[in-house]
């Protein structure tokens, strides 16, 4: 390849990277202005340019959750977990989406996985307890909450006496999308 061909290729990469950064910044601004549809549209373009960016999938997950589209939020959360399994944020978003989809066992498991990575995360712990509480309301007496539930979350469950069902994560007023939107500044600060 000629030197000119390498230069063009390098310039193309720089242009694409610059475009992705512009889109990411515009999406964050749209989220902060509660323009969730606009943010998701922008993030769709950004993800198409850089599908291996967990940060872009995470932001699109937030936008989808704010729109109440928890199936789409779950899809992006699962990509975040796949791309960055050692970061607890993907498990938080997955747990939140599953909770909103009324899959309380799946939500508890996702929050448990996040707690295994970050045992001191209070919001993750509250999400876990909210899911366990709702799950326990739906099961027959004497049936285990979830086979194989283990790790710090299960150990904390033993004898803690904690009561969930309306705490830091799930107990906000309004619809689920409103709850997702309530914490936008905190979610975007981590990005």
Write the layout of secondary structure elements.
Blueprint: H1 3-32, H2 36-49, H3 54-66, H4 70-83, H5 88-100, H6 104-117, H7 122-138, H8 152-157, H9 176-182, H10 184-189
Helix pairs in contact: 1-2, 2-3, 3-4, 3-5, 3-9, 4-5, 5-6, 5-7, 6-7
Strand content: under 5%
Q: What is the average per-residue confidence, as pLDDT, rounded to a whole number?
A: 79
Task: Report the CATH superfamily.
Answer: Tetratricopeptide repeat domain
Helix content: over 70%
For the report, how would you describe the main beta sheet?
A: none
The SSE order reads HHHHHHHHHH
**Radius of gyration, CA atoms, in whole angstroms:** 19 Å
Structural class comes to mainly alpha
* CATH C-level class: Mainly Alpha
**Total beta strands:** 0
CATH architecture: Alpha Horseshoe
| Number of contiguous helices | 10
Q: What low-confidence regions span 5 or more consecutive residues with pLDDT below 50?
A: 1-6, 143-175
The fold-level CATH name is Serine Threonine Protein Phosphatase 5, Tetratricopeptide repeat
Dominant shape = elongated
Domains, number: 1
- Please report the distance between the alpha carbons of the first and last residues: 38 Å
């Amino acid at each position: 390849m000629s030197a000119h061909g390498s230069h063009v290729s390098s310039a193309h990469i720089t242009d694409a990277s610059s475009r992705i950064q512009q889109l990411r910044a515009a999406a964050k601004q749209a989220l902060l202005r509660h323009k969730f549809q606009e943010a998701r549209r922008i993030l769709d373009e950004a993800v198409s340019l850089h599908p291996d960016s967990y940060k872009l999938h995470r932001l699109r997950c937030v936008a989808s959750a704010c729109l109440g589209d928890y199936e789409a939020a779950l899809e992006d959360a699962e990509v975040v977990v796949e791309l960055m399994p050692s970061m607890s944020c993907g498990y938080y978003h997955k747990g939140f989406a599953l909770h909103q989809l009324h899959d309380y066992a799946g939500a508890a498991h996702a929050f448990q996985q996040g707690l295994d990575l970050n045992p001191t995360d209070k919001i993750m712990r509250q999400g876990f307890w909210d899911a366990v509480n709702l799950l326990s309301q739906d099961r027959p007496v004497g049936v285990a909450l979830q086979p194989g539930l283990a790790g710090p979350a299960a150990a904390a469950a033993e004898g803690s006496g904690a009561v969930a069902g309306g705490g830091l994560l799930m107990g906000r007023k309004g619809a689920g999308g409103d709850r997702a939107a309530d914490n936008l500044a905190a979610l975007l600060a981590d990005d």
